[in-house]
Design a protein that fits this description.
This protein is mostly helical and about 70 residues long. The protein has helices at about 5-10, 15-30, 35-60, 60-65.
Length: about 70
């Protein structure tokens, strides 16, 4: 059984670690035989990871400059 990865679990991770975690979960999803519940948990975790990556990107000065907020 897989556990849901929450936003709070992701906060201490670096951007590179988030990207690696996302890739690892996608690999598990693509290559393992999983129950429906496990698939749902992994997909929900992937959504949380992507939201954290996007949130961090939106807070970065480079992103704010690109959209004219700097």
């Amino acid at each position: 059984m897989h556990m849901l990865i929450t936003i709070n679990d992701l906060k201490p991770l670096t951007d590179a670690e988030l990207e690696r975690l996302e890739a690892q979960l996608r690999h598990i999803l693509d290559t393992h035989v999983l129950t429906t519940d496990d698939r749902i948990t992994i997909i929900a975790s992937l959504v949380n990871i992507r939201q954290e990556i996007d949130r961090r990107a939106a807070l970065s000065p480079a992103y704010r400059h690109d959209i004219g907020m700097a």
